[in-house]
Amino acid sequence: MTQPHIVWLRRDLRLADQPAFHAAAALGPVIPVYVLDDETPRHRRMGAASRWWLHHSLEALALELEAAGSRLILRRGKAAEVLATLAQETGAAAIHALRHVEPWWRMAEKELAKALDLRLYDGLYLMPPGSLRTGGGTPYKIFTPFKNALIDAIGEVDVLPAPRLSAPESWPASDKLDDWALLPTTPDWAGGFREAWTPGSAAAHARMEEFKDILAPYRQDRELPSIDGTSRLSPHLHFGEVSPRQLWHAIAGMGGQGPGFFKAELIWRDYAANLVLQFPDYGARSYREGYDEGLWRDPENDQAAAADLAAWQQGRTGYPIVDAGMRQLWHTGWMHNRVRMIAASFLVKHLLIDWRQGEQWFWDTLVDADYPSNATNWQWVSGTGVDSNMFVRIMAPLSQSEKFDAGAYIRQWVPELGKLSDPYVHDPESFRCRPRDYPAPVIGHKEGRERALAAYKAMKG
Ligand SMILES: Cc1cc2nc3c(=O)[nH]c(=O)nc-3n(C[C@H](O)[C@H](O)[C@H](O)COP(=O)(O)OP(=O)(O)OC[C@H]3O[C@@H](n4cnc5c(N)ncnc54)[C@H](O)[C@@H]3O)c2cc1C
User: Fold this and answer.
1) Which key words are in the record (predicted)?
2) How far does residue 68's CA lie from ligand 1's centre (Å)?
3) Cα dist. 111→8, 117, 235 in Å?
4) Substitution candidate for ligand 1 out of 234, 248, 361 with most atoms within 8 A of CB
5) Are 433 and 423 in contact (CB under 8 A)?
6) Which domains occur in the chain, in start order?
7) Among the atoms of ligand 1, which is closest to the Cα of residue 371?
8) Which residues are within 8 A (CB) of 39 and not within 5 positions of it... i.e. 6 or more apart?
9) Which of 23, 197, 252, 312 has its CA 20 to 30 A from that of 153?
10) Cα-to-centroid distance, 159 and ligand 1 (Å)
């Protein structure tokens, strides 16, 4: 009997340019398995929006595998235990998987490697996390030198084709995807998700092709939430339906500034993984001293702060650009990057609420919720991280809204403001044209800014 090889899938749900599949397929019959594991990540269990995406992504991958003469085996439980059982049941020779940087996955990989032949490969990022080092031999903390080092090191990027898979003599039992109840039922809040997205590798590649046509003006257009100027590939990238190296490869040779700026964004994703590898609890605590001890208003013990947090979550702060973003997030599981920065800054500075509250909300509501990217961007916006950004740089949401021409975006997501033209729609309160059904600002810009700076000064003593 030829021993089969297990491929353990997590956020690498594709066949092409997936080194674990490739290596396993070269050695014998392949058993692809996805383990729904809420125990290993503990409080970091996948959020509701991600679970919606996961359901559809697994469905798409199962179809792709069937077309290739294979199957997707689904199991539920603690990954290390489930895989040990499956390896025993099937007499598997080894388990193949892509290396992940989330601290809980690194622990699971360690545990599994003690008991079984676990073979790990790089494939989630442009370059293996941890591989780029400063002249002094240490990992990078600051983005720009990291980016320059990656561009110097990456060379010509080749991608792997989908491997030919052979089936084991018998297939192990599999759970039914529907039994996992990953989709919302009562209420079914995913209508907007269904309109906005098609999960799966085929859709990711189709979007990539479409995006190539709008890549030339990406440098300017990516800043404008009212237009379709970014790739919207983030959930596909997060779940590994397309690899960043496939994207890099796809745009190699394209001229102009667009591709260069797009590559820089992909490098941010690698940078975030590089930080989380160095600082595994980057999503759990501020990396500058003092911030976690008394700077923030605490929604658990302060009713006004709790009300402000709820207004932010529901998109009812009275700041149109913030509310449009938070409602886009709620309805589609995604928010434009410029607006993510504005909404995050507003929570942390104007409302003086701990960035970890925002990070948790995003974790639950984003279809692209990604531990390294979410943590890194929240700490960056808040000025609490190891990079060079500072808390005292406070964004002005109303002028940002005008500067980045967000009028149409606001009218789309905040129907109460649908009849207001520019410039009124950016700041209906100051223009005295706020409709009755739209809330007054929870705090004035000047007042919020001064409160944040005073709290910062007090923290610094
Ligand atoms: C507070 C905050 C939280 C965020 N949380 C997440 C998150 O959980 N998951 C996530 O994927 N992105 C996160 N981002 C980064 C960014 O907003 C999204 O990656 C981007 O909006 C996705 O849209 P796109 O695919 O059209 O991006 P594009 O502009 O087309 O960029 C291409 C790809 O580059 C990567 N990328 C772009 N910007 C960043 C960035 N700043 N950091 C890391 N990767 C980046 C993404 O994978 C993206 O798909 C966050 C940003 C902020 C300010």
Assistant:
1) Chromophore, FAD, Flavoprotein, Lyase
2) 32
3) 14, 11, 28
4) 234
5) no
6) 5-123 (3.40.50.620), 125-155+199-278 (1.25.40.80), 303-460 (1.10.579.10)
7) 8
8) 77, 78
9) 23
10) 23
- Ligand 1 pocket test: pick from 265, 341, 348, 356 the residue with the most ligand atoms within 8 Å of its Cβ: 265
pLDDT digits (tens, 9 = 90+) for 266-321: 999 999 999 999 999 999 999 998 898 889 999 999 999 999 999 999 999 999 99
Q: Is there a cis peptide before residue 187, judged by omega within 30 degrees of 0?
A: yes
Report how far Cα 66 is from the mean position of its chain's Cα atoms: 28
CA distances from 365 to 10, 80, 324, 359 (A): 19, 28, 15, 10
**Using a 6 Å cutoff on CB, does residue 146 contact ligand 1?**
no
Relative to the CA of 231, which ligand 1 atom is closest? 30
Residue 20's Cβ-count burial label (10 Å; 0-12, 13-18, 19+) is: buried
CA dihedral 416, 420, 423, 425 (to 10 degrees): 0
CA torsion sign, 302 to 303 to 308 to 311? positive
Ligand 1 in reach of 382 Cβ (< 6 A): no
Give the model confidence (pLDDT) of 321-344 as tens digits: 999 999 999 999 999 999 999 999
Atom of ligand 1 nearest to the CA of 233: 25
Q: What is d(CA 263, CA 390) in angstroms, rounded to the nearest whole number?
A: 25
CA of residue 234 to ligand 1 center, whole Å: 6
Q: Which of 258, 244, 286 is nearest to 380 (CA)?
A: 286
Q: Is the CB of 261 under 6 A from ligand 1?
A: no
